[in-house]
Amino acid sequence: MTLQHNLSAATTSAFGKKTKGTILSASLELFNQRGFHAVSTAQIASASEVLDGTLWYHFKAKQDLANTHLETLEVRLEEILLAPHASEPQMIVESYFMIFDALWDFRYLLRDPSPILQSEPEFAARIKQAYASVEKNTIYRLKSACDEGLLSLSDVDIDSFAKNCVVIGNYWLDYSRVRGGSSRNRETDKRQAAEQVFLVLKPYLTPKALTLIDASEIERSA
User: Fold this and answer.
1) Rounded to two decimals, what is the model's pTM?
2) What is the rounded CA–CA span in Å between residue 47 and residue 50?
3) What kind and span of H or E run contains 179?
């Protein structure tokens, strides 16, 4: 079975290179490309190049895979928020790309509506918490950007802009999925989503911020 290998290095590193990590990576790719309920355990085993029994040894059900995916996403988001030097100007800009990488890698979890959410109330509550974490992270970055002279926003506007940034960054994934189909590429999606976010913020960016953005990954991945 041929898979597009588009996961970020941070996600594959979090999963590890052992058999369990291989299964997590392959299942994540399949769920992203086809949807959680459209993928069978036999397809996951085939893509992971393991026997069915090996898959069941590590994960008793498909939901166990989704639970582990969500746990990894939660850790990723918390690590980004608590990253060293998180309030420094360059890190404020680069953290946007780090957040988008996490959203892109685990995008099947964040699609709305999702059949998983309808059948698993506790899982749905954790998804909502993941969204809250992304929004909290974005608010922190925007406030830090204002403090560092990168943005000119009032405290009242920051919450609204944070929600707009999250909506654009996340729902760009659905838009590009329809628009780009199977030819989608994480770096292209990330660059185009960043362009949309920065377009919204552009009237409030200072010259210092524009210089940092020009030197950032949005240019390197063009």
Assistant:
1) 0.80
2) 8
3) helix 155-180
